[in-house]
Amino acid sequence: MAVEEHVTEQPVKVPATARPSGPGTRTQAMKDAVKRPTTFDRFADWVSEAMGRPLNIAFWFVLVLTWTLIFALGGPKLSSGSWLPTWFTSQGYNFPLNLITTVAELFIGFLVATAANRAQNALTVLLDKIDTQEEQIETTEANIVSLIKENTDLTSEIHTLTTRVAKNTALIVEVHRHVTALTIHAGLDVGDFPPDAPPPATTS
After folding, report:
1. Confidence band for 183, pLDDT divided at 50, 70 and 90
2. How far apart are CA 115 and CA 112, in angstroms?
3. What is the DSSP string of 56-124?
4. Domain boundaries defined on the chain
5. DSSP state of 45
6. What per-residue confidence (pLDDT) applies to 10?
7. What's the whole-model pTM score?
8. What's the CA angle centered on 79, arms 75 and 84, to 5 degrees?
9. Burial of 44 (0-12, 13-18, 19+ CB in 10 A)
């Protein structure tokens, strides 16, 4: 009984070492950053989460709005700033203060970008795992289809053999009936002589 071999085309898998590297691609460093975040990563996540909270946004919105209204509605004396201390309005104080706030804003942006990159890395790793699982599912489905096809072929061949055996059995029964009839017609019983012994000679 011959069984046909069915070759299923498998998708070509690119090894991990052959995949391109660069922005937007999964690297070992990206996976490590997602699995084992450093202290800096955790701090960046905390800053990004704190900056994006509605309470923080509302606080600064109210503060800026209040500051603007005070100087807009406070009159010429308040808007001129003459009531402020001289050291507070001096260039020697304002320049370092503006420099510190500008650098702080810059680094807050860097921290938020770091947290966003980690989130993007986690999403990239997750999508890569999903792609791997989809490839495994497709391979399993192809194997199942191949096994079902082989099972169907085997069932068909078994049915064919069963049909042939049934036909051969009917033919053997028919031959046995004719031999029995001829034996009785010759005046012999079926068990008169063994099958391997020559039949007795007939006299004319």
Report:
1. confident
2. 5
3. HHHHHHHHHHHHHHHHHHSHHHHHHTTTS-HHHHSHHHHHHHHHHHHHHHHHHHHHHHHHHHHHHHHHH
4. 30-134
5. H
6. 46
7. 0.45
8. 120
9. buried
